[in-house]
Predict the structure of Glycosyltransferase.
Amino acid sequence: APTEPPLHVVLVCFPGQGHINPFLRLANLLSSHGLRITFVINLSTARQMKSLPQPSPSAGAAAVHFDFFEDGHDEESIKRVPLDQLLTLLEHAGRKALPQMVQNYAEAGNPVSCFVSNPFIPWVSDVASTLDIPCAVLWIQSCASFTTYYHFHNKLAPFPTAEDPERDVVLPGMPLLKHDEVPSFLHPTTPYPFLATSILQQFAHLANVFCVLMETFEELEPEVIRHVSTFCKVKPVGPLWLSARASAGPGDLIQAENDCVGWLDGQLPGSVVYISMGSIVAMTAEQRAEMAHGLLGSGMPFLWVARPTMDEGDDADLGLPEGLEERGKVVRWAPQEEVLGHVAVACFVTHCGWNSTLEAIGAGKPVVAFPQWGDQVTDAKFLEEVFRVGVRMGRGDTWTKLVRREEVERCLREVTVGPRAEEMKENAARWKREAEAAVKAGGSSERNVREFVEEVKKRSVRRKTETAT
Ligand code: UDP
């Protein structure tokens, strides 16, 4: 009998660094289980990516393949499309392109067994159900954020409103969230209500989805995962970066020549502060100055990922104080996985994007949490009060509120030499062990991945039988 082609899973990715990284990692992970993977993204973003790993000929059919759909932009103009327009543009282009892609794959002998979609492109599950192909979601934020959005969407709990903007939110399996710890897109004062609309659409589409893979692990968020499991088929499979390290950031959208690791090699163990605000947030000039003086005041060497704001423009000078770079290194982009894993790094000043949060947890580094918007404020609460690996710097509307140099310095001291520093370090080291155990053979996340693969297999067999009869 002819050999069956491997199961073919198509991952459709939203063009943001925080989406590309976990999707590439999931692609690698699933392909290591013998699945054929196609990673789909819009063409102009694909052109921005540093180097798309090509499957080696020896990898055979079960490897990661790439496919792109036209979005009518080039790699420069796509960066300037406002987010709300980008969401609509991708939906139009993607709804048109996906069915054709599916047909092409089938004609080439690789029929699609399953789609994996993403919170910002909920329409993928529509396309999948029209084509009668099973669809799963990779939720790339915490389970805590998932349940918060879910409860908001289904009006299952009171949230802050224009009349009562400071209301606390109480949800099952969750610590109480103060109003400024609720994902900011849900807050009545958010300047980005369309982001909430888009993320929440996901929940309107949940019925179309047979499984929600989550970039978290059972030991990290046990109560909330248990509660979410009562209404939704969730499978925590993270930290994906630990189980499927993507070598040298092939999906990096920002490129910068520098030798961060070489520089860290020359620093003492446990001496360096690493500062990064992820791929989107940029500090204002005023905030950069306060950060710079805070770093100088702390006396610690530092590796700082800093870029000008959109308004300042890509080529603007950062205007950092004289003499700063004698004490540390300032770069536009760093290989974050390697940096966090480096022995020289003592702590991480982070904007608390969920990828960065899980990277800190998996690397066992204490944090200074400096959240700005979205789920970052919720992640910061968990880092400080639940995971207990750091302190939160600044509160409230951090977009407009300046965090002063004294506060920067105080936080750095607290996580490195203060009376609670040792405890935070021990907690961080414990989370690293838990994260590693979760992705090892027999660990909770590894088991969930295997169950997912089995489920895809079962559904694929069932569809074949149905088609045959
Ligand atoms: N990242 C990186 N180098 C940098 C800054 C960020 O490799 O200099 C990576 C980081 O490791 C993470 C992703 O970019 O995987 C950012 O995702 P996150 O969810 O933390 O934040 P976002 O960029 O979505 O705000």
